[in-house]
Design brief:
This protein is mainly β. It contains four helices and 57 strands. It starts with a strand and ends in a 23-residue tail after the last strand.
């Protein structure tokens, strides 16, 4: 008996035989990792799943990249859902419809099985701890982790599988040959087995099956083929690949090209040619599918010795991307060299996250330097610099930067869920004198954008730029003890703008939110300040320390304009001043007389 070394991706999830429909119907989420959504069967709306929340049929579960979830039913049946998975359950027929991805079920002994459907393939499956993963051809494969399992087609064809065996259910109501695989390698690599807080109740039985298989190998009864099972099968054979030339892809999203399944360590100025793709190459299986040119790997690590990475050989390319299906890690400072007069964009893109060792710097000279990750990123005491072009640091989750310098000829900082900046120096003017002669800078010189779908928090930070824009699409902006310098400043938040102890040196300032709260602010006497709130009024008792009033502009205390109390300069009849008006309206027409104040009744408490 020969054992395939590993099972390819998509199989790494297991579907233990689940109990009856009523049990799954009452399953509760016990752990959630990253992006897990429940899709309503009624209107297809989506909402994030929450721990201790019940999963109700006939809704659907959808997971994102690097995401997974565990549900437990009343009878202790466990359902684990892998990354990039979509599935639903039909209570009437006890059928799991696996649209894509992978699942794991563990059912207590003696509980009933169910039907698995994926694409056009359907089979009844009975077992205690098994795995199921959808295949590209519209079928699926079943993997047994302990005990035995029974796979039966509608036409009556049946296979009995033991621990360490798998079979493909094909779209044409056929089964592939049964394959025996290395159970220990699968279990070690599988995030659906190892990636949860609580071990499977059947862990001891799985380990016993592993020991028995190892004993067969030691006795010479079984041997390791060194081959890995692929995702393609027929009634006569199964695809296999040499694990020495193709990396293991267990329990991860299938990506293409194959280099994205290989880790890479960069320790020298030159790059490994096996990871280089210098013509547009299609990338699939990742959230950022498309055509890319550059250096591809699963996890990319820049280690000591890689202080300089030479990109000069690729200076004729309009862009170059370090693309990771996992993470990018910098253990030290790295300067990416290139011809600053002609070199294009450099992008660092990771499906998971990007980390940089504290007290390190990343620098580049080109039209654009983009540092982007799908998941959250956090940096402490780091310098990011693009000497001659725009610089962008953006996260698909939260972005947190502390004690760092961010320098470029135009800077963008973004986090989909939140942005937190603490003790930063940010310059949109670059590091030195004038703007270099680069024709293809794609962002206006001197702009600084800070954007988030949620909360924006900025503390003890200095920002220098021609135009500074801070935006929170669905949250609030909180700014404390900061210095902002430039020509125009714009802040826009869905809920609250709260600014305390800040210096603003601008010709034009525009703040827009339902509620604006200001403390210890001195607006320059030559600036036009536009403040938009829900009701377009100044709250009563300005500069007296009164509590802020929702929907209004609040001068809480020590808010001045040109050294004088700010309320004396609201809606002036001529010249510069402070203009307060409703969200969505145009600034008020001058003519109310200097010192005329639109504000709420003093009766408001």
């Amino acid at each position: 008996m020969k054992l395939a070394s590993q099972i390819v991706l998509f199989v790494a999830f297991s579907v233990p035989v689940w109990c009856g429909a009523a049990d799954l119907k009452q399953s509760k989420f016990t752990q959630i990792v990253n992006d897990v959504k429940v899709v309503s069967a009624a209107d297809k709306s989506q909402k994030s799943a929450n721990v201790n929340e019940m999963f109700k049929l006939p809704d659907m579960i959808r997971t994102g990249p690097s995401s997974r979830a565990e549900l437990v039913a009343e009878d202790k049946t466990i359902t684990r859902v892998g990354a990039n998975t979509i599935f639903s359950f039909n209570a009437a027929t006890r059928t799991v419809d696996l649209e894509k991805g992978t699942l794991l079920f563990h059912a207590p002994k003696g509980k009933g099985g169910g039907i698995i459907k994926s694409g056009s393939a359907v089979a009844a499956v009975l077992g205690t701890t098994i795995m199921v993963g959808a295949t590209p051809d519209g079928g699926f494969k079943v993997v047994v982790l302990e005990g035995t399992a029974k796979v039966k087609l509608n036409n009556g064809q049946t296979e009995i599988l033991k621990a360490g065996q798998m079979v493909f259910v094909l779209p044409n109501e056929k089964l592939s040959p049964v394959i025996t695989f290395r159970l220990d390698l699968l279990v070690t690599a599988s995030k659906l087995i190892q990636g949860f807080d609580t071990p499977l109740p059947s862990s001891d039985l799985i380990n016993l099956a592993i020991d028995e298989q190892k004993h067969l190998i030691d006795r010479g009864v079984a041997s390791d083929t060194g081959l890995e099972v692929g995702d393609i099968a027929t009634i006569t054979g199964v695809q296999v690949v040499d694990v020495n030339s193709t990396p293991p892809s267990l329990d991860r999203e299938r990506v293409s090209p194959p280099a994205l399944d290989l880790d890479a360590i960069i320790s020298a100025p030159t790059l490994d040619v096996s990871h280089l793709f210098l013509t547009p190459t299609a990338v699939t299986g990742l959230p950022f599918e498309g055509n890319f040119v550059g250096f591809f790997a699963r996890n990319i690590t820049f280690v000591n010795g890689s202080q300089t990475v030479d990109l000069t050989p690729y200076h004729n390319l309009p862009n170059f991307t370090f693309l990771a299906s996992g993470s990018i890690k910098f253990e030290n400072s790295v300067h990416f060299t290139g011809n600053s007069e002609s070199y294009g964009d450099l992008s660092l893109i990771a499906a998971d996250t990007i980390t940089v060792a504290p007290e390190s710097s990343l620098s580049y000279s080109g039209s654009g330097f983009f540092i982007q990750a799908l998941n959250s990123m956090s940096f402490d005491s780091v310098t990011f610099q693009n000497y001659n072009g725009i610089l962008e640091v953006s996260s698909g989750g939260a972005l947190a930067i502390k004690g760092s310098d961010i320098i470029g000829y135009g800077v963008t900082l973004g986090g989909a869920s939140s942005v937190t900046l603490d003790d930063l120096y940010v310059s949109g003017y670059g590091s030195g004198g004038g703007r270099p002669a680069i024709a293809n800078v794609s962002s206006p010189y001197g702009q600084v954008y800070i954007t988030s779908g949620g909360q924006v928090t900025i503390r003890d930070t200095s920002i220098n730029g021609n135009q500074i824009k801070v935006a929170s699409a669905a949250g609030s902006i909180n700014v404390d003890s900061c210095n902002f310098y430039g020509s125009t400043l714009a802040m826009r938040a869905a809920n609250i703008i709260n600014v305390n102890s800040c210096t603003f040196s601008f010709n034009t300032i525009n703040m827009a939110a339902k509620t604006i709260i200001l403390n210890n602010i001195n607006f320059g006497g030559s600036a036009n300040v536009y403040l938009q709130s829900q009701f377009g009024l100044l709250a009563a008792n300005p500069n007296t320390g009164a509590s802020p009033v929702a929907g209004y502009v609040n001068f809480v205390s020590n808010v001045n304009y040109g050294g004088d109390a700010a309320q004396n300069h609201v809606n002036p009849s001529s010249g510069t001043g402070i203009f307060i008006y409703k969200l969505g309206e145009q600034p008020p027409t001058q003519g109310g007389g200097t010192g005329t104040v639109s504000r709420a009744s003093s009766k408001i408490k």
